[in-house]
Amino acid sequence: MAYRVDSPSLRIPLNQSIWKILDLIFPPSCPGCGLIGERFCFDCLREIKTIDKDFCLKCGMVIDNYFYHELTTCEAQFEHLLMIRSFSLYMPPISMAIKKFKYHRDIGIADILANLLVELYNKNKMDIDMVIPVPLNPKRIKERGYNQSYLLAFPFSMKINKPINKQALRRSKETRPQVGLNRHERLLNVSEAFVADPQQVKGKNILLIDDVTTTGATLEACASALKLAGANDIVGFTLARAVPTKNGYSDDLIETASV
What we know:
Elements: H1 11-25, H2 42-47, H3 71-77, E1 83-89, H4 94-103, H5 110-123, E2 130-133, H6 138-144, H7 148-160, E3 169-171, H8 183-190, E4 194-196, H9 198-201, E5 206-213, H10 217-228, E6 234-241, E7 244-245, E8 248-249
Parallel strand pairs: 1-6, 2-5, 5-6
Antiparallel strand pairs: 3-4, 7-8
Helix pairs in contact: 5-7
């Protein structure tokens, strides 16, 4: 049986041309400052707090913002993931961009946000065979109209010249939103929630793409399914990492979350 894997080829110029035309017809506005005509203005992009140091090499958590962190415990919690990396902390202006992208149908910003993932990839060069977006709950796709992880992963895969496969991993059961749950509850919520196709992932090095990671439970659940199907090394990339607070995490104020 033949499986469809989207290859980057020469689609980048076409993709960018389409968005330029749409931007002329429907002028975008910067999610950070509201500047008309910019999907994400240069000044706001400079305000993004990137994660460049003082983070766990396994889970990617910024240690300065964590109440307690132990590497050995972290390695046990993420036994199927090689590592998790995030471009920045989940706070303005990138948090505002992600909210606009996910909840206000501003899909045009996906191409700009994908550039941030490319920058993250260039900082963490690795040998990967394919890019896989984290599958969204079918009910959520019906409500939202799209999977934001795929809209990020598609231009990202073109820019790094790697194939994307959204069929190799799927949700096998419906799960409740992760907002407000602690790590243990999140792990239970997504336990055995994904299934991978061995014919497509066996022996492959895979890069998982999602928008935000909070505890990493969803990425680990995806990695578990991929490992069970015979995948080799699995890495998780996200745009932002939620910051632990006294009352939970910095993304718990969102109506819904994917991780």
